[in-house]
Amino acid sequence: MATAVPARRSRFLLVGLVLAHLTAISHQVDGGSGVSLLQRALLGVLGPLQRGVGATLGGASELWRGWAFHRDTYAENRRLREQVRSLETELQLRSFKAQESVRLRELLELRQTVPLDTLAALVVGRDGVPWFRTITLDKGEQDGVKLDAAVISATGVVGRVFAVGPHAARVQVLLDRDSGIAALVERSRVSGVISGQVAGNESGSEDLVFKYVSERADVAVGDLVVTSGLDRIYPKGLVIGRVRFVGQVTGLFRDVRVEPSARFERLEEVLVVRQPPPPLEMTRSVE
Amino acid sequence: MSRALWTAAALAGAVLVETGLAHLVTAPGRYLDPFLLVVVYCALVFGETHGMLAGAAAGWVQDALFGGRVLGISGLSKLLVGYAVGIGAGRFLIATTAARALVVMLASLADALLLQWLASVFSLEALFLPPLALATRATLSALVGGLLFALVDQRLARARA
Q1: Distance (Å, rounded) from C-alpha A69 to C-alpha A46?
Q2: Residues of A in contact with B123 (CB under 8 A)
Q3: What are φ and ψ of residue A51, in 5° steps?
Q4: What is the pLDDT along chain A (287 residues), one digit of tens a residue?
Q5: ipTM
Q6: Do the chains contact at B80 and A18, CB–CB below 8 Å?
C-alpha cells in the first residue's frame, strides 16, 4: 500500500528518530567515569577539534601573554634604567659631598691650627693644561682679598694672589717658574728660595727648585721645607714640601729639588691669608 | 479505525501475548516477538513512515515492560526494521502470505542482529542468541506472522465489505 507521506519527509523523520533514540539511549548508558556514551561519542568526535581550537587559542593566549609580559618588562626595564641613572647621579652627588666635606674639614682644621686671619675660597678656574701656573678664586677685593696675599691649602702652600678683582682673584701657584718663596729646611734651618719650573705652555717637572743652597748646607732627601717668612708674603712655618733630590754642586750652589705638599691638580678649596706679615720698619739704624 | 488507534490496539494485543507467553515459557523472546509482528504488518500495510513510528512505539513499550534497564534499544532496532520493511513494501509486491512470511523472517533476523549489535555498541547486557536459535526464532515468527497477517487481512476485508 502506498503511503501518502513523501519519501523525503520520511527520511528526515527517520534520521530524527534515530538521533533521538541514540540520544535517549546514551543518556541512560554510563560510558565509564560517569560520562554518558553520547558525551563520550561527542568527545571522541569533537575532542580533536576542541584540542586543536584549544591549542590554537592557548598558543595565541601564550603569545599575547608573552607580548604583554615583554611590553611590561620593557617598560619596567626603562623605568629601572632611569631609576639607576637617577641613583647613580645621586650617589655621585653624595660622594662629591662626602669628599667636599672631608676637604672642608681638613681646611677647617688648618684654619684652626694656623693662627692667621684667613678666608676660605673656592677654586673656580685654572689653566687648561696639566702644568698650570695660575688658579682663579671666587673671592675678591670686596671679600678682603689683597694683592700678594698668601694662599694655602690643607696640605701645603699654594701660591700668592697676583691679580685681584671685586669678586675674584688670580693666584700664581708655586709651580710657576716666576714664583718665589723664602724657605728653609725645618731640620737644619738651611734657607733658600723655592720656585717652580713651569713656564708658558711647556710641560715641565712639578718638582720645585730649592735655590741658593750652598754646597756645605745640611740638606737631605726627605727633609721638610717650610716658609721662612723672610719674603713678607708668606707667614713663617707653612709647609711647602719635602726634599726629593739632592744633586751635585753646580757653580756655587747645590741642585736641590722639592716635592710640593699641595696637591695642585686637586685643589678645590683654599684659604687666603688676609693679614700679611707686618712690614719691617727700621726705627733705628747703626750710625 | 484510524491507523494510530489500530496500531495502539495491536500493540496492546502484543503486550497481552508477550505477557501470556512469559507465563508459559522462560524468556519467550527467544521464540517469538509479537511486537515485531505488529511492526512488520504496519510497515507492509501503511508504509515506511507508519512502520517506523509503529516500530519505535512497539520497541519502547517492549523495553518499558519487558526489556532491560535501558529504554530505546528495541525502539531503535524496530524503528529501523519498520522503515526498511516499509521501503521494501513500497518497491516490491509483497502481497502473498509466503512473501509476507519471508519478510517477517528477515525482519526477525534483522531485529535480533540489530539488537545484539546495538547492545554491543552500548556495552549492554542483551540476549545473544546463537545462529540456530536465531533461525528457529525467525522461522517461528515467519509462520506465526504469515498466518496472523492472513487472518487480519481477512478480518479487515470483511470489515470493509
Answers
A1: 33
A2: 29, 37
A3: -65, -40
A4: 444 556 788 888 889 998 888 888 877 776 555 555 655 655 565 566 657 777 887 788 888 888 888 888 888 999 999 999 999 989 988 888 888 888 788 778 777 777 778 888 988 887 655 556 788 899 999 988 988 899 998 888 999 998 888 988 989 888 888 888 999 999 999 999 998 886 654 555 678 999 998 888 899 999 999 998 888 888 888 899 999 999 888 778 888 999 999 888 778 889 998 876 666 666 655 55
A5: 0.83
A6: yes
- Whether this prediction's pTM lies above 0.80 is answered by no
Judged by a CB distance cut-off of 8 A, whether residue B20 touches chain A is no
> Per this entry, what is the length of chain B?
161
Per-residue cell: B65: 515492560
Residue whose C-alpha is closest to residue A223's, from A173, A198, A249, A258: A258
Distances (CA, A) of A229 to A236, A276, B91, B157: 4, 10, 144, 160
Whether residues B79 and A14 touch (CB distance < 8 A) is answered with: yes
Which DSSP helix (H) or strand (E) runs through B139?
Answer: helix B131-160
Quick one: which of A232, A237, A70, A88 has its CA closest to A152? A237
Neighbours of A29 (CB within 10 A): 20
Coil vs helix vs strand at A153:
coil
Instruction: Say whether A28 and B69 touch across the interface (CB within 8 A).
Output: yes
What's the grid cell of residue A37? Answer: 556514551
Quick one: how far is CA A167 from the chain centroid?
A: 28
